[in-house]
Amino acid sequence: MIDLIIPALLPIVVTLLLGFIAGWHHDFDAGQGAVLNRMVMLYALPLTLFAGMMGLSRSVLLAQGVIAVILLAGMVGGYLLVFLLVRYLFRQKPGLAALLALSVSGPAVPFVGVPVLGHLYGTISTIPIALCSIIMNLFQVPLTILILSSADTEKKDDSFLQHIVHTLKEPVVWAPVLALILLLCNLHIPAAFRSALQLLGGTTGGVALFASGVILYSYHVVFNRTVILSIVAKNILLPLLIMALAIWLHTDRQTLSLSVISMAIPTASVCVILAVQYKTAGQEIASILFFSTLFSILTMGGLLYYLAG
């Protein structure tokens, strides 16, 4: 099983390493990494989400009940649980709590789901990739942006409605919402136009990971209690909880495996993008991304070995 995991995760590790080397070689600095992140957030990521979702059919979207419930429980329930624990038990600021919640409950499926899940499961992997992308970009990312922008604003009298409006103006939020509305109305864009959007959108994963590598060098990786607890929760505890839920729901073996491995995918680089953009815990979030990816070779390999048995 390790022979399956390594080829699937090797592109992620290599791209992160190339960004790290570029930072070490002074080809890029943290400011330039932030510019690359801005391009991803404003253009590349919204385009890849919109084009990818418009490639689905409405029937496929509406037919995936069980796996949708499991992934919703893991990504939405996991986000809320981690946020509440960090905010009220560990008494951390809302912005940090939101970023840690996203780091733990947000797998990098929109960025690296195709090489990882596609390599392991083939065409059936389209379903969890689409579902995770929708959940992340219709719930997790908007809520994280809302909390970060609320903490970041200089006007303390801004209303909650104003923060929602600010969040909805972000392309990474309204682009997948628009795609979802069009899909539910059974409307599609021409394939040639969707292909044109994917040219820039296809750079999302590589550029985001490369920029994350640059930022990793700039911030210097740390291995403190926050990072350790986040990695244990992300790579081990949450996938095991999802496995227990899937077994309790009596799912078939394929749904069980797809759900567990989807949630075991490493932390999404969008966490680092947001941490840099809002100047909140950049070093810790970048370190979680790095070590989550590194240790996922062992944790995902162990989960696959167990599920295969």
TrEMBL record:
<feature type="transmembrane region" description="Helical">
    <location>
        <begin position="36"/>
        <end position="56"/>
    </location>
</feature>
<keyword id="KW-0472">Membrane</keyword>
<keyword id="KW-0813">Transport</keyword>
<feature type="transmembrane region" description="Helical">
    <location>
        <begin position="231"/>
        <end position="250"/>
    </location>
</feature>
<feature type="transmembrane region" description="Helical">
    <location>
        <begin position="127"/>
        <end position="151"/>
    </location>
</feature>
<keyword id="KW-1133">Transmembrane helix</keyword>
<keyword id="KW-1003">Cell membrane</keyword>
<feature type="transmembrane region" description="Helical">
    <location>
        <begin position="288"/>
        <end position="308"/>
    </location>
</feature>
<protein>
    <submittedName>
        <fullName>AEC family transporter</fullName>
    </submittedName>
</protein>
<keyword id="KW-0812">Transmembrane</keyword>
<feature type="transmembrane region" description="Helical">
    <location>
        <begin position="6"/>
        <end position="24"/>
    </location>
</feature>
<feature type="transmembrane region" description="Helical">
    <location>
        <begin position="256"/>
        <end position="276"/>
    </location>
</feature>
<feature type="transmembrane region" description="Helical">
    <location>
        <begin position="62"/>
        <end position="86"/>
    </location>
</feature>
<feature type="transmembrane region" description="Helical">
    <location>
        <begin position="172"/>
        <end position="193"/>
    </location>
</feature>
<feature type="transmembrane region" description="Helical">
    <location>
        <begin position="98"/>
        <end position="121"/>
    </location>
</feature>
<dbReference type="Pfam" id="PF03547">
    <property type="entry name" value="Mem_trans"/>
</dbReference>
<feature type="transmembrane region" description="Helical">
    <location>
        <begin position="199"/>
        <end position="219"/>
    </location>
</feature>
<dbReference type="InterPro" id="IPR004776">
    <property type="entry name" value="Mem_transp_PIN-like"/>
</dbReference>
